[in-house]
Every structure is written in C-alpha cells, then in structure tokens.
Amino acid sequence: MAMQAVGLRTYIWNNNLRSAFLLAGFPVLLLGIVFALTMGLIWSGIAPSAGTAGGDIAEALGLMAVSAPAAIAVSLIWFAIAYFFNQSIIDMATGARKVEPSEEPEFYKLLENLAISRGMRTPTPRVIETDGMNAFASGVHEGRFSVTVTRGLLQNLDRDELEAVLAHEMTHVINRDVRTMVIASIFAGIITLLCQIIYRTVFWTGRGRGRSFWVFWVVAIVAAAIGSLLAVVIRMAISRNREYVADAGSVELTKNPDAMISALQKVSGHTHLDAPQSMRAMFLEEDDDGVFGLFATHPPVEKRIAALQRYAGGRIVDHPNPAVVLDPPATIVGPGKGPWGPEESRPLPVPAPARPGPWG
Fold first, then answer.
1. What is the CB-side half-sphere exposure of residue 109 using CA atoms within 13 A?
2. At a CB cut-off of 8 Å and minimum separation 6, what does 287 contact?
3. Entry pTM
4. Is 272 in contact with 332 (CB distance < 8 Å)?
5. pLDDT, tens only, 180-200
6. Domain ranges of the chain
7. Which of 5, 1, 2 is nearest to 13 (CA)?
8. What is the DSSP letter of 44?
9. Strands, E, within the chain: which ranges?
10. Could you give the residue numbers annotated as active site?
11. d(Cα 343, Cα 40) in Å, to the nearest integer?
12. May I ask the CATH architecture of the domain 96-163+248-345?
C-alpha cells in the first residue's frame, strides 16, 4: 500500500508539473511566433535590415524582448478566461448541458456514490444529446469538476457498465489528469486558431504582392505549420498511459473489471462526437488514430481490454454485435510488466459480484 501511495503521489506530481510546463510554454510559443514573423519581414524587405545576418537576428530578438510583457499579459488573460470559463468553452464546443438529478437519477446516483466513496464533492453531471457513446471529465479545481456523458452512452450501457465508465472518469479527477487535459485542450485550441489566423491573413494579403512579400509568406506559413505541430505535441504531452491508469482506477472503485471490459467493447467504433480535435484527448475513447497511430491520444481498445484481463482478472463478455472481438485470454506481448505494475506483485483477481452499488 505504501508503494501504491507513493506511485499515485508521483503520478499526481507529474501531472501538476505538466500543467506548469504548459502554462510556461504558452508565452514562449507566442514570443517564438513574433520572432519568426519579424525575421520574415526583414528577409522579405518589408522591414529594414541591419545589413548582416547577425544584426537581423539581434533586431528580431530585441523586438521579441520588447514583446515579452505583452505576450505574458496575453497568456495571463487567456489563462484567466480558461480558468473561470473553461466549462462554458467546453460546453459550447461539445454541446454539453448540465442536468439535474431528477432528469437523470441513475446517472446522478452512481456519480454521487463514487464521489462519496472517495470523500469528494459530487461533480456536476452533464449530457450531450448525440448517439455516439463517449464520456469525459472536466474542471480545474474542487467544486468545479464535471462528468459529461453522451445520450448514446446512457441508452446503450447497462448499470454496471455505466458505473465503470463513471469510475474511469472519476479517476481522472482524483489523479488530477483532468486539470492537465483541460489546460492542454484549451491552449492547443488557441494555438491552432492563432496559426489559422496567420495562414489566412498572409494568404489573402499576399495576393497580388511582389516577389519580396512571398519570402515573408513562406516564413509565416512555416511558423504556422510549426505552431500547429506544437499544438499536436501539447495534446500528446498527456501520456496515453493515463487511460490505463484510469481503467485501473475504475476497477479499484467498482471491483468489477468485467463491466469496464464490456463498456469498452460496446463503445469501440461508436464514439464519434462533434468536437474540436484539441479536446478529443479528454474523451473516454477516440476512434481517430491519426497517421499510423502516431498521433493517437488513446491506446488501442484491444490493449486496454488485454490489460484489464491480465492485471485485473477481467473476463470477455459476449455481445450480440461486439465492436471489439477478442478470444479470451487476450495477451500482451512483452515482459511481465504493464501499466499497473509488475505482474508478479499484482493482487489476486477480484470476481465481479452482483451488487447494488459501489458500497456492496
């Protein structure tokens, strides 16, 4: 148990460090864009040149230093907006709405029981009216957390499966994953928007200009491309391992690995949700693997199910039309270590009892 506590504290500390890194990196990225655009203006002849490469770089660095207070101020203002209005931004982007306990009593009761079991305030329940089956947690501090599920998830998952998914999302809250995911999603979104503005502005103002302007155009487009790539890197800064840890947390809270496996089988391939790319790292599951899976925000469902089988004693549930077909027992290629620790030190599998709730 001591090792578990140390591991969890280290994991939370790492998440807080990632959040601090993202906050510090945002003004640095803005200054980098200013530097690149300044160099583009000088090289294209639009801005005066110092006559030497070193002088031009010094001029651009000087302008970047002068711009530093403005970049920091913009970052602080945007962080304040994100801090106080992050849920409103997410709701507008995803179509989520707050629901009262009387509207979705089972959803609320399951969420409340899970929160009570950890001595936490119950997150605000939210629902997205879509057939896709997905869920995510959001919020940056105690009292402002929310757990959002889709209508498709509520309609297609049974009680135990829904509880397992909610426990997965609650684990993101407990482990402070949710803070990092919200900050990364919002900052990645504003970086993408800024790069789009640069691209469109340069494209339309460059039409009909002379050859010198196209030098600036190329530099600006390269800067926008690098910014877009950094937005992807920011999303990937949230380790995919968080999903394995959240699956483990779901089992710890519910003592029912079979339900988590069954939920993953049902949602896989049916998780589409209209939302900005920058926010999809927050979801329970994301079907888009990117280019050859290099930019995937989630590990494959098959590997998550295999981990639940191997390290939690979960069993494959037979579904009439499963999206993920696995022949038990599934295996993980590699040494006897996984996202939940060495195989030889894991506890014995806990059978999935039929019980009324998380207290049973």
1. 11
2. 268, 269, 271, 272
3. 0.72
4. no
5. 777 777 777 777 777 777 767
6. 2-93+178-236, 96-163+248-345
7. 5
8. T
9. 96-98, 124-128, 135-138, 146-150, 337-338, 341-342
10. 169
11. 55
12. 2-Layer Sandwich (3.30)
